[in-house]
Structure formats: structure tokens, C-alpha cells
Amino acid sequence: MNLNHLEYFRVLAHLEHYTQAAKELSITQPSLSHAISMLEKELGTPLFEKQGRNVRLTRYGRFFLTYVEQALDEIKLGEQKLKEFSYQTDGIIRLGFDALLEPTFVPKLMQTFLSEQVLTFTLKQSDTHALIDHLKTGAHDLIISTSVPLDHELDTTTLATWKWHLLLSSTHPFAHRSDISLQELQEQLFILPPTQTPEHLAITQLFVQQHLPLPNTLEIAQKETTLELVALNYGVSIALNPTPLLRQDIQAIPIKGTLPLEAYLITLKNQSLTPSARLFKDFLLQTTKS
Questions:
Q1: Residues 243, 165: contact at Cβ < 8 Å?
Q2: What is the pLDDT of residue 130?
Q3: Which burial class, exposed, middle or buried, applies to 147 when counting CB atoms under 10 A from its CB (0-12, 13-18, 19+)?
Q4: Where is the HTH lysR-type domain (predicted)?
Q5: Who is most buried in 167, 222, 243, 257, counting CB within 10 A?
Q6: How far is CA 171 from CA 2, 63, 224, 245, in A?
Q7: Longest dimension (CA), the chain
Q8: Residue 88 confidence (pLDDT) above 60
Q9: Phi-psi region of 270 (alpha: psi -120 to 50; beta: other; left: phi over 0)
Q10: What is the pTM for the complete model shown?
Q11: Tell me, what's the pLDDT at 86?
């Protein structure tokens, strides 16, 4: 059933005059007459009857008008609510990201993006499985993660790649090396984040991948404390992008044979994004190309 025809019917039912109704609807009178005729044919009953130069509703028309007005009013209300919802979400980008990302990565992306846009982010940091669940339920517009589960519903794009580096004191015997292997580090004390943190699990996985036992470790939660201990040559540590951590008394050496860590932009296929989220996604994709 044609929605326009229902609106034409409602206007004609109130005005009971074809010329006035056609003018109100900004259509020609023959177009209005044809629309009403098609509607009556579809319903199999007359909706209007002539009364001099005017028309009036038949009893079938009066019965039908009640439901048409309810239906059109509900559609109008739904349209209004949808616009209100779009307005409320426009200007807000709901971004999820995982804890294993290089610490400055997401903030720097946001800083560059917000330098040219007046928009707002809501941020949520969690593990990848929780982020995917939130993405599918609509709690996130898009997510940035270091792993991607096999899922045909997801679109993924690599945003960045980081290599693992050994952090050590500038006075350490290995400080002059251009690269180093995990095999050579078995006698070292490793200062790592606490057990069960994403960073700790990722670092221990490096040793598992090369079939090496995990050396002696000291678990420290604060990054600043770790750097101070490394600078004192009390132990060594492992980091991804070491640039923000480097000091005159700390060196970073690439670790040979370890798989790099990648950051992925993840969205749902055929997802309808708000204008703001679409703008940020396009920015991320453009950043990847440049």
C-alpha cells in the first residue's frame, strides 16, 4: 500500500474537495483522483461518494480513516524520534580499544583528529572479546584492537605495526648491540607488568613462541618504577614502541625473531555509522594510507 496515497486520502477526507486537497498536497487534481482510485481498487471498496461539487466519505471511508490517521501519526512520531536519536548520537564517537596497544597510540590519533573537528569521544578499554560483543550490540561505533577473532561479520584494517624492543641501562653490556635475541637473555632479570595483565601475557607469549623458558622476573605495576630500575641496571624490560620511554640512561634494542604487534581498526560489515563515527573511520583509513 502506497504511503503517499494514504496521506492523500487523509487530506481529501478532511477537506472533502478535490481541488483544495490537490492544492494542499501540491499535486495535480488528476494525480489525486488517480491515487484515490488506485487506493479504492486495492481495498475493493469505495471510500468517497459525490455530493454536488464536493465529495464525502462513505461509511467505509470513515471506518478506514481512523486507522489511517493512527498509522500516519505513528510513522510521523517514529520519524521525529529517529531524528532526535540521530541528533543525540551525532557529535559523539563511541570508541573501544584494548590495553595492549602502545600507550600513546589512541590518544595521539584523537589529538590529531580533534585538531580539525569539534566532536566528543566516549572511551572504553577492555579485552578484545568484550570489545567485539559491545561492537555487535551497538555500544561501540568502532574498536581498535591488537587481535581479530575469525568472524565473517567483521571488517578489519591494519592501522599500525610495532616491533618488540629490549629496554636496558645505557651501562649494560648489551647496550651497544644493534639487535638481540631472547635466547641471549635467559640469564637476565626481567622487570614485567603484573601477571594476568595484557602486557605480561603478551611478553611471556614471546618466549613460548620460541620454545624458551621464561627467565627470572620481577613484577612492577608502575611504568615509572620499571624505568628507574632499568636505568639502575637492576634488570631489563620489554616494550613495543619504546620512543616515549627512552631517556639518556636507557637504551632500546630490537629483539630478533619476535612477531610484531599490529593494531587493527574493527567495524561491522554493512554497519550504519553516525556521521561523526564515519568521519573518524575515514580519518583512520586515510591515516593508514599516508
A1: no
A2: 92
A3: middle
A4: 1-58
A5: 167
A6: 81, 92, 19, 17
A7: 108
A8: no
A9: left
A10: 0.64
A11: 57
Q: Which of 70-79, 87-96, 186-195 has the highest mean pLDDT?
A: 186-195
Cα–Cα dist 262/278, whole Å: 22
Cα dihedral 223, 244, 204, 124 in deg (nearest 10): 80
User: Would the pLDDT of 91 be above 90?
Assistant: no
Q: Helical H runs in the chain? A: 3-15, 18-25, 29-43, 59-89, 105-114, 128-137, 198-209, 223-231, 275-289
Flag whether pLDDT at 215 surpasses 70: yes
Q: Which residues pair with 192 in a beta bridge?
A: 219
> What's the CATH architecture for 164-259?
3-Layer(aba) Sandwich (3.40)
Q: 269 exposed, middle or buried (CB, 10 Å; 0-12, 13-18, 19+)? A: exposed
- Please indicate whether residue 236 or residue 119 has the higher confidence score (pLDDT): 236
Using the predicted structure, report yes or no on whether residue 275 has a pLDDT greater than 80. yes
**Given CA atoms 117, 112, 101, 237 in this order, what sign does their dihedral have?**
negative
Q: Which CATH number fits domain 3-88: 2.30.30.40, 1.10.10.10, 1.20.1250.20, 1.10.1370.30?
A: 1.10.10.10
* Helix 3-15 vs helix 59-89: crossing angle, to nearest 10: 120
Q: Indicate the pairing of strand 190-192 with strand 217-219.
A: parallel
Question: What fold does the segment set 91-161+262-289 form as a domain?
Answer: D-Maltodextrin-Binding Protein; domain 2 (3.40.190)
Mean local confidence (pLDDT), 264-279? 89
Q: Are 47 and 40 in contact (CB under 8 A)?
A: yes
- The cell 620489554 sits on which residue? 238
Q: Give 114-151 pLDDT, tens digit per residue.
A: 998 888 999 999 988 999 999 999 899 999 999 888 88
| Residue showing cell 611504568 | 223
